[in-house]
Amino acid sequence: MASDCSDLYIENAMISNPAKTGKPGEKKEFDRILHMPRPDFSGFEYSTILCIDKPNREFHPQGGSVIPGAFDLPEPDYDREGEVVEHEMPLVDDWFRVEVTDHDQLDSGVDLTGHEVVVAMGRGIGDDPTTGIELGVELTDCFEDAAMGLSRGVITSSYDFEGHVSQYITEERQIGESGQEVQPDVYVAVGISGAIQHKVGMDESDIIVSINTDPEADIREFSDYFVEGDLFEVLPPLIEALESGETDIATALEGPADD
Ligand SMILES: Cc1cc2nc3c(=O)[nH]c(=O)nc-3n(C[C@H](O)[C@H](O)[C@H](O)COP(=O)(O)OP(=O)(O)OC[C@H]3O[C@@H](n4cnc5c(N)ncnc54)[C@H](O)[C@@H]3O)c2cc1C
């Protein structure tokens, strides 16, 4: 589901032949329709997904999903109470007859939100993708509470990753408009150009550090610290310094963004 689901709402709606049922142009009135606006084409256009149920039924099961980080979690309000409405419903036995033909265990997923540090790897790893991801994992391990994310560029690339790192190359690690939105204390963007679709998923981070060979890379504009350099040269000594406790990230990155 798209990131901007804050507009989820339920209302009465008049829809003209929404699902191409009935006669063309025929108007049907539906009650309790869940409207779920979602951005398409990078937010240039909005579609509204409607959960439409058969109007002559007494119940309206509807559902939506949101990606991690799309909403701030509200504090629980234990004073709120829901209204319980009792209904007598003559339910047809057939509705409950389910035959399980197969089942699968869903992966628990990767939640990149809520960490102090997020290390994100981009297509800058292209010269040696396996080593690039290994360095990303090593850097992530230097922090107590960190997770590793990816730009979409890495996920859609046709890089040949060796087996032991290919487990990390999954869409659930994608950060950005069509991935997760993160706001860590420190965001380290490694070999990422800073496309708008990536930016919207990370630019609320407190401190943004980017490492890039291109001094003109867009990400520089919204980075607090910009390290101009090759990630394969910059990361090993940084990891070594962090691992040895010789330095912390703040010291390692000392100096203003434009240096
Ligand atoms: C509808 C839509 C939705 C999208 N959603 C997302 C999304 O959710 N998230 C997302 O990330 N993208 C998304 N994208 C893709 C996005 O537009 C970019 O294509 C993508 O973010 C680029 O990934 P990248 O920065 O890793 O790669 P590139 O743009 O190729 O950038 C690679 C960077 O690495 C640098 N570099 C190269 N070699 C090195 C090196 N050795 N050391 C250091 N730096 C190096 C280069 O200078 C360059 O800046 C979406 C696109 C569309 C159209």
Indicate the topology.
Elements: E1 9-16, E2 27-40, E3 45-51, E4 117-121, H1 129-141, E5 146-150, H2 152-155, H3 163-166, E6 186-190, H4 196-199, E7 207-212, E8 225-228, H5 231-243, H6 249-252
Helix pairs in contact: 1-5
How would you portray this structure in words?
This protein is an alpha/beta fold and 259 residues long. 16% of the residues lie in helices and 21% in strands. It folds into two domains: 1-66, no CATH class; 117-252, 3-Layer(aba) Sandwich (Rossmann fold), CATH 3.40.50.1220. The chain has helices at 129-141, 152-155, 163-166, 196-199, 231-243, 249-252, and strands spanning 9-16, 27-40, 45-51, 117-121, 146-150, 186-190, 207-212, 225-228. The strands form two sheets. Strands 5-4-6-7-8 form a five-stranded parallel sheet. Strands 1-2-3 form a three-stranded antiparallel sheet, with no helix packed on it. Strand 4, helix 1 (129-141) and strand 5 (146-150) form a beta-alpha-beta unit. The model is unreliable at 1-22 and 255-259 (pLDDT under 50). Bound molecules: flavin-adenine dinucleotide. Residues 42, 122-124, 127, 151-154, 174-179, 191-193, 195, 197-198, 201, 211-214, 217, 230-232 line the site of flavin-adenine dinucleotide (FAD).
Q: What do we call the CATH topology of the largest domain?
A: Rossmann fold
Helix content: 10-25%
Largest beta sheet, briefly? 5 strands, parallel
Unreliable spans are 1-22, 255-259
Total domains: 2
Q: Which ligands accompany this protein? A: flavin-adenine dinucleotide
Number of helices: 6
CATH superfamily of the largest domain: TPP-binding domain
What would CATH call the class of the largest domain?
Answer: Alpha Beta
Number of separate strands:
8
Distance between the termini: 40 Å
